[in-house]
Specification:
The protein has about 325 residues and is α/β, with parallel strands linked by helices. The chain has one domain: P-loop containing nucleotide triphosphate hydrolases (Rossmann fold), CATH 3.40.50. The protein has a four-stranded parallel sheet. The longest helix has 28 residues. The termini are far apart.
């Protein structure tokens, strides 16, 4: 076979390969995570960081994978207050990096990671929360498994069974700018009306949640990760039991768990505004489509998107 005939037969694959590399390079350069670290940006950093946890006295790193409005803030505060397993936060959220880096002044991601580990570790444990969008940015540039190797890291996955209430909560938080309600802060009056949200807005959040769950499950499969699965409803039914389950899986001894968990204080409160009427009306109006949503969770939801386009509800 001549070179010209080989080129003709393989030109499509070559073009695809070149385009993929070009688009991958553009995606990396546009990654907002990379933009936070001048040294990495100049170097054109690519995936490949390997973090030595033992060097920082960490025997048990852990990650809580999350979806939005799943109760993860409440959970992280409960863990933090036990003083047994560090202070898990969304350390790879770009806004949080910007906030924390005003203190650390880290010019590289590795330096930033070293700083948050040193300041947040406790009794040989360090934890972080991360959602799909943050995970995608982190993995693309620095590589997730090199930072949190599956053989060494404990994984949890926090979701919410009631996706309609979850989507409504997400849309309401974005609309009002009120994401959390803590004790000791100005209260949200129960008599205040809930934000008026269109059906299209709520469906937009449902689709984002479906995409997040699908991509997260794919990531677990590709990386042979089998997380301990938790959800908002479990947390609401028994906060202490969920907290104790996590601490037990992180290797905390039973006496310490019992002693410390029972003195934690719940500082996060539910929004007291009544939104049940709008959510109930939404469930009634789209009952058949919501059945399809439940069947699609964690996998393809193409049929749901098609139906939303037909109904004029796709964003």
């Amino acid at each position: 076979m001549t070179f010209l005939s080989w080129l003709r037969n393989n030109s499509r694959n070559l073009i695809y390969s070149v385009l993929r590399k070009i688009l991958g390079t553009i995606a990396k350069r546009a990654n907002p995570l990379l933009a936070q670290f001048p040294e990495d940006q100049i170097a054109g950093k690519s995936a490949g960081i390997h973090f030595d946890w033992s060097e920082y006295g960490i025997s048990t790193p852990y990650v809580i994978f999350i979806t939005g409005r799943c109760g993860s803030t409440l959970l992280s505060n409960l863990i933090k207050d036990t003083h047994l397993a560090g202070a898990p936060e969304e350390y790879f959220n770009v806004d949080n990096i910007s906030r924390l880096n005003r203190r650390y002044r880290a010019k590289s991601f590795l330096s930033y990671l070293q700083n948050i580990v040193e300041s947040s570790k406790c009794r040989g444990r360090f934890g972080s929360e991360i959602d799909w969008w943050q995970l995608r940015q982190l993995d693309l540039i620095f590589g997730f498994s090199g930072i949190f190797p599956p053989a060494k890291t404990k994984f949890f996955y926090m979701t919410r069974r009631d996706i309609v209430a979850q989507a409504y909560s997400f849309a309401a938080a974005k609309s009002t700018g009120i994401w959390h309600h803590y004790s000791g802060t100005p209260t949200i009056e129960a008599g205040n009306p809930s934000p008026s949200l269109t059906d299209k807005r709520i469906w937009g959040e449902i689709v984002l949640l479906l995409e997040s769950e699908k991509q997260m499950e794919r990531f677990f499969t590709q990386n042979a990760i089998k997380p301990i699965r938790l959800d908002y409803e479990m947390l609401m039914a028994s906060r202490m039991n969920v907290l104790k389950l996590i601490l037990l899986n992180l290797g905390c001894d039973v006496d310490s768990i019992i002693r410390q968990a029972d003195i934690t204080t719940d500082r996060t409160h539910k929004d007291p505004r009544d939104n049940s009427q709008q959510i109930l009306a939404f469930r009634s109006k789209y009952s058949n489509l919501l059945t399809a949503v439940e069947n699609a969770r964690g996998c393809s939801y193409a049929a749901v998107r098609l139906q939303l386009r037909i109904l004029g509800l796709a964003q």
